[in-house]
Amino acid sequence: MLFNKIADGLVQSTDNEYFLIEINPLVNKYIPFKKDSMNCASYLGGIIEGFLNSADFRCKVSTHFQEVENVLKTYYIIKFDDEIIQRDSELK
Fold first, then answer.
1. DSSP assignments along 17-29, one per residue
2. What is the reported pLDDT for 5?
3. Stretch 33-59: mean pLDDT, rounded?
4. Which pLDDT tens digit goes with each residue over 61-72?
5. Which of 63, 32, 29 is nearest to 46 (CA)?
6. pLDDT above 90 for 81
7. 65, 39 in Cβ contact below 8 A?
8. Strand runs labelled E in the chain
9. pLDDT band at 36; cut points 50, 70, 90
10. Residue 46: which residues within 8 A CB-CB, separation 6 or more?
């Protein structure tokens, strides 16, 4: 939870890739931008990556967005290192 807002969705794509979905990110509410060229919530991908890496969940996070019927959906694609997936499977 960032900025007192829970994500709108979490989808596992592959064993090591997850989509964190946020509809109309809060930071976009206060920063004007052209919806077809950039998303001000992109820097949150860096914050998410920093949190996870600091907690020893090594990963890369990329941010993508799509507007559907005047609703901006932001996708944070989290790809964990193979070592993290292996460590998780050993704990099960």
1. EEEEEEES-HHHH
2. 81
3. 86
4. 999 988 888 888
5. 63
6. yes
7. yes
8. 9-14, 17-23, 59-68, 71-80
9. low
10. 61
Q: Which residue has tokens 């996708």?
A: 75
Q: Write down the CATH number for the domain with range 9-91.
A: 3.30.1380.20
Structure tokens at 78: 């989290």
Task: Show the tokens assigned to 64.
Answer: 């993508």
* Rounded CA Rg of the chain: 14
Q: Which residues lie across from 2 on neighbouring strands?
A: 5
Q: CB-based contacts of 12: which residues, under 8 Å, 6+ apart? A: 18, 19
**This prediction's pTM:** 0.83
Q: Encoding tokens for residue 69?
A: 């019927």
- Domain ranges for the chain: 9-91
Structure tokens at 90: 């050993």
